[in-house]
Amino acid sequence: MKLSGRGRSLSCGHGRLRLPKGRWQSPSPWLSLVLVASVCCMAKAARTQYSATEAMIPMRDGVKLYTQIFKPLGLAEDRPILMTRTPYSVPPLAQTLANPGPSRLFSEAGYLFVYQDVRGQFRSEGEWEVLMPSRQDPSDPAAVDESTDAYDTVEWLLENVEGHNGRVGMWGISYDGWQTVMAMADAHPALVAVSPQASPADMFLGDDLHHNGAFRLSYTFGWMAFMAVRRGEADPALIGPILNPGTSPDCYGFFLGEGTLPELGGKYFGKVQGWQDFMAHGNYDEFWERRNNLRVLDDVRPAVLHVAGWFDAEDFRGPIDLYHRVEENDDADQNFLVVGPWRHGGWSERTGDDGASLGDLDFDEPTSEQFRDQIEFPFFEHHLRDESDPLLPEVMAFETGGNRWHELDEWPPESEELRPLFLRREGIASFEPPAPGEGFTPFTSDPANPVPYTRRAPVMPEPGYMVEDQRFVSDRDDVLTFLTEPLEEDLVIAGRVEVELTFATTGSDADWIVKLIDVSPPGSEVSAATGSPMNGTQTILAGEIFRAKFRDSFSEPSPLEPGKKTELKFFLPDRFHRFRAGHRILVQVHSTWFPLYDVNPQTFTDIYSASKDQFQVADHQVFHEEGAESLLRLPVCAVDDF
User: Fold this and answer.
1) DSSP H/E element including 500
2) If the chain, 642 residues long, is cut into consecutive pieces of 10 residues, what is the mean pLDDT of each piece?
3) Domain containing 247: what range?
4) CA distance readout (Å), 251 to 257, 266, 473, 555
5) Distance (Å) of CA 239 to CA 91, 130, 218, 225, 550
6) What pTM was computed for the model?
7) Are 484 and 630 part of one and the same domain?
């Protein structure tokens, strides 16, 4: 590993540690299986010339999928194939050819590139289904799903494309990452290396569409609207101005004005099957279970490079869960995880982001460039072309706050302790338990006046809120804040933060949001990224929601008993962060987070069909008593180890 930076390398109990400083129309009807465009041009930033070919590749059920194939010209040796399958429409040939592969290194090395529209999308035949579930009977030779489509595509490429070396790799970000995961399940023998990046795993528990059963309103609306317009299923004149950053209304006022989910869906998504499916499956039933790709990964044969970003607003939990799932059967030691200080896809060369900063946070190093040049490219080179083994560690994780990459033998590293941080009376957060008689802290939650998740944003969420200063909501009466004294020494956490709340409410359902925040000292710091003063800035590190009716079961929700003390346990997303001496730790607790999530009516009901009269104001209590504590358990590591 040769990550650039300052400092030295040393060993510790956690492994080797490095301390560095619109839709376009398809061409005329296909006259044959392969339509040769024979476009020959120079890939941007690459010395290798490529020819471009279009193909309609047949699947085992006769459906043909639109595919672009880019072959290097004038190279004597055979080359590996690197493939991406997407539901977002493969761009025109020349546009793809200008930037093939994950980064310029792959085109400079003369890889064969393959891009494909998935079944039922754009120029591919067949029927598309959002997150197409795995086939019920894998032994049925006629059954199809995304895994069989990937398998059949690889088989066709090996037989019909000249100049390959018999090895195939696959990569993708977000939904394309999910396609990569499906391809590595029951993978073709020639598919030897894959990199699912920011792939979702379970869409009801922790990725794009829901978190712990709570519906991610603004993101799901924006994504479904974008896809529906491109597929001709929704009115572009109605939706276009809403999604256009230049004309988009503020998300908070827009979603409040559109009313309930039935009203919103009826206005914008009357013919959109995906939205209707989401609304019809408000609990964790077979619909969601079959779309959980963790369940199909018993025998993963390719080498896997999972990629995640600490500040990914869409798909952070997925890569972590996928890494652990594959690790269960990784006898060949070829399952790797990289987590950097990135937004969704921020490590990609196509974003133009070098990964040196995000918002006011400065990371000292071009972390995205480091990943692309020293991890991603060497990984594929080794497995697809027998280049020297880059000796990747099991886990490569960036420590925010300390601004260092760490090479680890596992994730999370072994904690020194799960240190309880108690939420106490009068807004105190303390490592000491509450004293007798501290009682509870009350607040009132009004669905008509929900807590905003950001100061102001367009309807389609922007990633900046993941590191936003939270002072804009700290003074609200429906936001509880619990603050520590300034830390006397650095405190490092690595792993998932456990949450234990004891609460009571006058309603029969409630959402609970908990946020972990790093508070800068007053008047002592300036952001190296933006030059802004970090004078008491409350930078959110992690936040999570839990819909309380699912506290015992996501498939069989149950109402809360009004006035009864209720215990709720869940966890915040994994984090690797150094709270610096002099900083404070702040915890915020509230019951709405709008419109990032839909508003809970605070009445036990099917929220997806709830009417306005079912939404009610509720009084909540968060307890601080012995035997009824509310706290976070921080996975604290020995500072000397990091």
Assistant:
1) strand 498-505
2) 33 33 29 32 57 96 97 89 96 84 94 97 94 87 94 98 96 97 96 98 95 97 93 91 93 96 95 93 96 94 98 96 96 96 94 91 95 97 94 97 96 92 97 94 98 94 93 97 98 97 98 98 84 91 98 98 98 97 97 98 97 97 95 90 62
3) 210-289
4) 10, 18, 16, 30
5) 23, 20, 13, 7, 33
6) 0.92
7) yes
